[in-house]
Amino acid sequence: MTLDPKFAHQELEKMGKDGLSAADLIDLKGRGGLTYNDFLILPGFINFPADTVSLETKITRNITLKAPLMSSPMDTVTEVDMAITMALLGGIGVLHNNCTPEEQAAMVRKVKKFENGFITDPICLSAKHKIRDVLNIKNKLGFAGIPITDNGNVGGKLLGIVTNRDIGFREDIDTELSTVMTTDVVTARHGVTLAEANQILRDSKKGKLPIVDADNNLVSLVARSDLLKNRDYPWASKHPQTKQLLVAAAIGTRPGDRGRLAKLVEAGLDLVVIDSSQGNSSFQIEMVKHIKETYGSQIDVIAGNVVTRDQAANLIAAGADGLRIGMGSGSICITQEVMAVGRPQGTGVYQVSEFARKFGVPTVADGGISNVGHIAKALSLGASCVMMGSLLAGTSEAPGEYFFLDGKRLKKYRGMGSLDAMEKNDSDNSGSQARYFSESDKVKVAQGVTGAVVDKGSIKQFIPYLITGLQHSLQDMGVPHLSELWPMVADGQVRFEHRSAAAQIEGGVHDLFSYEKRLYK
Fold this sequence. Notes:
- It is built from 20 helices and 20 strands.
- It has helices spanning about 10-15, 20-25, 30, 80-90, 100-115, 130-140, 165, 195-205, 225-230, 255-265, 280-295, 310-320, 335-340, 345-355, 370-380, 420, 430-435, 460-475, 480-490, 500-505, and strands at about 40, 55-60, 65, 70, 90-95, 145-150, 160, 190, 210, 220-225, 250, 270-275, 300-305, 320-325, 365, 385-390, 400-405, 410-415, 450-455, 495-500.
- Helix 4 runs parallel beside helix 5 (about 100-115), helix 5 (about 100-115) packs parallel to helix 10 (about 255-265) and helix 12 (about 310-320) crosses helix 14.
């Protein structure tokens, strides 16, 4: 019998919703562990355009990003350039710790200096300094607009300013700055708002605006370059008070890492990520407690890695502000193969995220992310953010030099558990060895490999592609805001379905003689 179309919704209610709930999808007894390729998300109802989809998300209890994207703390993925660009584009970079504490602190400092609101500790020189000193600063930090004070420090009486224009054609680099500096300086009085300071910069057409007190003592500085960056990067991840870019860094759980962290906090670190392949240890619990007791709300901490609720419970109880999920799922990681320990990433993300959300602790899905669809799936399983390694390796912002092989432009990419990474530094400064508890081992057992990835160009084009793709994915699910995704998953509005091996083939490119796969323009 054919039914009247006007009763379609009533009939649907009788038959029940199509697909599976997230709880039914994660059927541990029936199907075992789940990876991102093992399932699909069923389409929802669209009544909004994709470009209005908000991707704002919490990555810790206190830090919110405009885009749910983090770069991995690997020495072939995240150093200064990657951290700066990730923050400008709405995400955050996690600086690796396979280096000395001083080198890592210097990286933090460079990120924090890149873009500021009020620069409260600008580099200053005195009138007796020489052009040589300005050039050294320019070569080291990339800028040359430097206030000149009577004592060469913030708080001294402002005498002038030196810019590229003042020193550009001077051949004698031992000339004192008193003879070349600009003394007719546009300033603003301490207490001016950032908006007012920016307006003065616009009207004066100057590159720097010194902020002085009633006695003409230098208090802070505002830069025109930062004003331009505010216009070009509206999603930039910034500290709410200082307006500096947000930056994260990895540390281990050794006693020496406490001193490393002190240097990082002094340099301006916003978020510390405890980097361990297996986070459920007494060492990490003690480190989390130390961080919270020593620094309080000054800095947030993401603990991990974990893949089970049991692991998560210990770190949440210790005071972690966020959790990092993943063990052996990265493209260059062989932990599951060598150690026989780990968990399929889809199952790990769901199990840990469902538990952590009960305590208001956001989670980061780390590993197994190789395309936009995997990002969407990780978020649908409860993660607040994803961490990317191989997806960002090979970009121009990733550390390392390009090389050519068989006509392909490549860049080196290695796991932090690879022998290559473990041998980079001595055991005291090897974040790689500490991550896998290998500092004292006479025989190093690799848990990662070294390889190469194809050139992807700049993340200034690649990250916007990921963001736009994710907005369209959420639109297809019928989710207008990322913050609404998990509630809609939890109450069964967002539905899922398992994929057979044949379904996975069908869902990819097939039955073509040849094709070109261009992901974005």
